[in-house]
């Protein structure tokens, strides 16, 4: 694994050909010398800072004594704005792995587009950073996403949305919280976060089946999604459109005679779509009940 891999950069804005649906993106790249962080909470074994609209909570081994009998805490090797260091908590009531939690200050959803992690201890072979995405406090994926960091102190590992057998961030979009954990000390030294505005009319609540408008099941989905329209046969002559979280149109769907449709998690060419957040919309409508979100799992 090489640290020379260049993280993918999303287009700052995308305009859909079908008005009035729009999507825009604001990309924030950390860590730069001009980015000033504010400490908002100092806990027993963690600290929280904010910068440029995002909140970072990271673990610190503050109760470490080093066998001296006196609490001295462990020194910090990577300091802001060079990066964020997370320490394995070895002492205290709740020893835990090193973890960094990233959220938006306003609670909105965003994408973790790319990151570079630097090992601050020897990991050896088979060690991986695990990222748990959450939406509304809920884990929608069955398992964390893993990113291989087999190596030694000082090694760096970079990941982005590119297909990669050792890890890809493609599925880390459309969530409002990301928990990045490793069972030893590490630091994030590069991080790209993308605030992608949801298509017009998308409800802010968590993904799931709704009682009116469109209903989707299953959701999250690892296979075909059945989409039902509460208007029943009255919707049979209309169409549905599927959009990615970036705003790109992915697929058109036709209702059957009962006012229902099936999306096989594919694009117009029949290729499987990547894991992540998508939106299903009644074509031509901007009403909140006519747009639903669905999380695709792979």
Which helices and strands appear, and what pairs or packs with what?
Elements lengths: L12 E3 L6 E9 L7 E5 L3 E6 L2 E6 L24 E3 L11 E7 L6 E9 L8 E8 L2 E2 L5 E4 L7 E4 L17 E6 L3 E11 L17 E4 L7 E5 L9 E6 L4 E6 L5 E4 L12 E7 L8 E6 L2
Compact summary:
With 298 residues, the chain is mainly beta. 0% of the residues lie in helices and 41% in strands. The chain folds into 2 domains: 13-196, Jelly Rolls; 214-296, Immunoglobulin-like, CATH 2.60.40.
Characterise this structure.
It contains no helices and 21 strands. With 298 residues, the protein is mainly beta. The chain has two domains: 13-196, Jelly Rolls (Sandwich); 214-296, Immunoglobulin-like. Strands 3, 4, 5, 7, 9, 10, 11 and 13 form an eight-stranded antiparallel sheet that branches. Strands 1, 2, 6, 8, 12 and 14 form a six-stranded antiparallel sheet that branches. Strand 4 and strand 5 form a beta hairpin. It starts with 12 loop residues before the first strand and ends with a strand.
């Amino acid at each position: 694994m090489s640290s020379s891999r260049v993280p993918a950069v999303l287009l700052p804005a995308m305009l859909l050909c079908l008005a009035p649906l729009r999507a825009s993106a604001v990309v924030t790249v950390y860590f730069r010398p001009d980015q000033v962080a504010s400490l908002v909470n100092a806990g027993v074994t963690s600290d929280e800072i904010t910068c440029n609209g995002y909140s970072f909570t990271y673990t610190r081994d503050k109760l470490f004594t080093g066998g001296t009998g006196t609490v001295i805490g462990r020194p910090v090797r990577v300091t802001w704005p060079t990066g964020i260091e997370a320490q394995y908590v070895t002492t205290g009531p709740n020893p835990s792995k090193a973890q960094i939690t990233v959220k938006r200050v306003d609670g909105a959803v965003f994408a973790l587009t790319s990151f570079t992690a630097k090992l601050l201890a020897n990991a050896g072979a088979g060690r991986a950073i695990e990222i748990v995405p959450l939406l509304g406090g809920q884990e929608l994926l069955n398992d964390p996403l893993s990113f291989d960091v087999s190596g030694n102190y000082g090694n760096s590992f970079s990941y982005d949305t590119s297909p990669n057998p050792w890890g890809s961030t493609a599925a880390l979009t459309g969530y409002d919280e990301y928990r990045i954990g490793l069972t030893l000390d590490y630091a994030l030294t590069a991080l790209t976060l993308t605030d992608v505005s949801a298509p017009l009319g998308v409800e802010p609540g968590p993904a799931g089946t709704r009682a009116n408008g469109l209903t989707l099941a299953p959701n999250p989905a690892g296979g075909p999604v059945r989409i039902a329209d509460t208007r029943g046969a009255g919707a049979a002559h209309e169409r549905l459109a599927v959009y990615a979280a970036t705003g790109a149109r992915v697929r058109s769907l036709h209702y059957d005679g009962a006012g229902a449709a099936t999306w096989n998690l594919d694009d117009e060419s029949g290729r499987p779509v990547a894991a992540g957040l998508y939106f299903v919309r009644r074509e031509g409508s901007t009403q909140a009940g006519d747009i639903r979100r669905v999380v695709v799992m792979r």
